[in-house]
Amino acid sequence: VLLEATGRAFKQYKPLSITTRGFSNSGLPQNVPLDVHPEVLDALSSKKSVVALETTLVTHGFEYPTNVELATSLEQIVRSTGAVPATIGIVEGRIKIGLEKAELERLASPAKPGSVFKISRRDIAPAIAMKADGGTTCAATLVFAALAGIKVFATGGLGGVHRGGESTMDISADLQELTRCPVGLVSSGVKSILDIQRTLEYLETLGVPVLSYGPSREFPAFFSPRSGFEVPWNAASPSIAAKILHTQSQLRMQNGVLFAVPIPDKYEAAGAEIQLAVDQAVAESEANGISRQGKEATPWLLKRVSELSKGTSITSNIALLENTALIGGQIAVEYQKLAQ
Ligand code: PSU
Ligand code: MN
């Protein structure tokens, strides 16, 4: 059964190009540094719902011990829906699909500061070859979710086109990755540290379906439920979202789908305040050159926004992550009903 479940994902999945000779009878590749947690393996082989979770938010998004508490709470929320969580990261050069508690601690609180890398697609092979530790971004988490045959991935913010991206060319690899991995990514949209309009344009160019989740077609702006930009479709319920993923799978489409879930309304007022901190942080990053320092830009901006908003952004960020974990779990459960 697992051969069927994951073998299919491998065959369709070209980017890592593992040859069929590399598969064991269980359908997972041999001789690659990949550890699937027994609970996740059991879920995949018995066709239970699984939700992938990322670890850049653990390694570069939140401070210790908030990061561990948050990762644990997201796993519990996924479980509350009946799905199995698979928190993905790289530990000592091994890809982990589902983390043990000690592994999560190791990523969340490194022995040496700066020894845990932020891993996007381009960093995967170097990090593995050098036996490094790393938190996986949306891009790398999509790669590994697709590799394992996981169909739903819940996170907070997807990367996007940075403000000023038309001259810095800072466009997150997360966007491109959504063209390669047949996974439904449930997020709260993209952060207002980014250029939301250009991000939506770019996703349109890439052919990635973008849906707002819920009754409205307004794309959410992470800290705020509203961005002022409409998208062409909305998914009103978990079952509609699941049906879209299933349709893509039936059509053997290789791209992902973005479901953008607004932060609950009660955070709207806080969102307006955080926006002021965001604007200031972006202006500072342009003045001090951080905006031209590649992968440092996003973590720096997030940290600065949290300082300037006196932690309000952290509370909102946790709330929206918990919300996407819940909805991700619900979508995964509905998807499994269709995939039986
Ligand atoms: N949004 C957050 N916190 C984060 C990130 C996004 O609220 O930690 C991370 C995600 O893992 C995302 C990555 O994939 O930042 C994007 O980074 P970049 O812009 O360098 O591609
Ligand atoms: Mn970038």
TrEMBL record:
It comes from Rhodocollybia butyracea. It comes from the Eukaryota. This is Indigoidine synthase A-like protein. The chain holds residues 3 to 342 of 752 of the full protein.
